[in-house]
Write a structure and sequence with these properties.
The protein is an alpha/beta fold. Helix 7 links the parallel strand 9 and strand 10. The protein is globular, with a radius of gyration of 18 Å. The structure holds 2-amino-2-deoxy-6-O-phosphono-alpha-D-glucopyranose. The site of 2-amino-2-deoxy-6-O-phosphono-alpha-D-glucopyranose (GLP) has 14 residues, from loops. The site of 2-amino-2-deoxy-6-O-phosphono-alpha-D-glucopyranose has 14 residues, from loops.
Length: 274
């Protein structure tokens, strides 16, 4: 696993990184790039930057297939807090993606388990996910894999714990009773099976999850620690999210970050928005 405490805006960083990956892959209709995507506050800047790159014709999504990580159960797709709505409005409607290539779990399906099974089959049909970008919850959850989720889990129905419901209640009139407490989510194994995993973490609330992720032991009680089992995973964070890390850890990763240097230099030249 790699760690980069970036001095640049995480959205700029992630968007440039994704852009380079897709362009180097040279996707075609028969061999699309498969991208896993998150929701939440953290990736909003990334979506804005990706839209810009698309509008500037530096990046096309014509041959990109997306799979979103999760969705609430029982929220209408046009509910402003559904992940369908979030993705449509913050990203998909602004880019040149083919709607057929967008995959978001249907939390209103009558057959939720079947919905999850078909989602996994579709990922397999495309030969797996090339790059999955995610966020992390304060308690270390990834997608909606709450603490105690099996590290071997695949896409499934998941009951959310109270701390996640409470954190998400900020989007539902600050009322936990109005906040959905069941979701569909990719499993931890689904995420680990991707060729590459990139987690973005911003703000002091994520600092304990991050120190567990990097300095702690692998444990289902902190799902993000599962990234330690992945051969090509990275956490990109700001200095606040890195707050709980030992200086020694930060220095160690600083010395390793040479393959990210080119991107950091590129952002410096462009005058990143931070
Ligand atoms: C929710 C989502 C996660 C996301 C997390 C953190 O629980 N299901 O996928 O990573 O929130 O979101 P934020 O970036 O808003 O802190």
């Amino acid at each position: 696993m790699r760690l980069l405490v970036s001095k640049f805006n995480l959205g700029d960083w992630a968007a440039r990184y994704i852009c380079d990956k897709i362009n180097k892959f040279k996707p075609t209709e028969s061999k699309p790039f498969v991208l896993g995507l998150p929701t939440g506050d953290t990736p909003l800047d990334m979506y804005k930057q990706l839209i810009k790159l698309n509008q500037q014709k530096i990046l096309s999504f014509k041959n990109v297939v997306t799979f979103n990580m999760d969705e609430y159960v029982g929220l209408a797709e046009d509910h402003p807090m559904s992940y369908h709505y979030y993705m449509q409005n913050n990203f998909f409607k602004h880019i040149d993606i083919n709607p057929k290539n967008i995959n978001i779990l249907n939390g209103n399906s009558t057959y939720l388990e079947y919905e999850c099974k078909v989602f996994e089959e579709k990922i397999a049909f495309y030969g797996g996910i090339n790059l999955i970008v995610g966020g992390v919850g304060d308690d270390g959850h990834i997608a909606f894999n709450e603490p105690s989720s099996s590290l071997n889990s695949i896409t499934r129905v998941k009951t959310l714990n109270y701390s996640t419901v409470l954190a998400n209640s900020r989007f539902f009139d600050n009322n936990p009773d109005k906040t959905p407490n069941i979701a569909l989510t990719m499993g931890i194994k689904t995420i680990l099976d991707s060729d590459e995993v990139l987690i973005l973490a911003k703000g002091i609330n994520k600092s304990i999850a991050l120190s567990n992720a990097i300095e702690g032991s692998v444990s289902s009680m902190c799902p993000i620690t599962a990234l330690q089992l992945h051969r090509n995973s990275a956490i990109i964070c700001d200095e606040y999210a890195a707050y709980e890390l030992k200086l020694k850890t930060i220095r160690y990763f600083e010395n390793l970050k040479d393959d990210y240097d080119a991107l950091e230099n590129q952002l410096a030249k462009m005058g990143s928005t931070l």
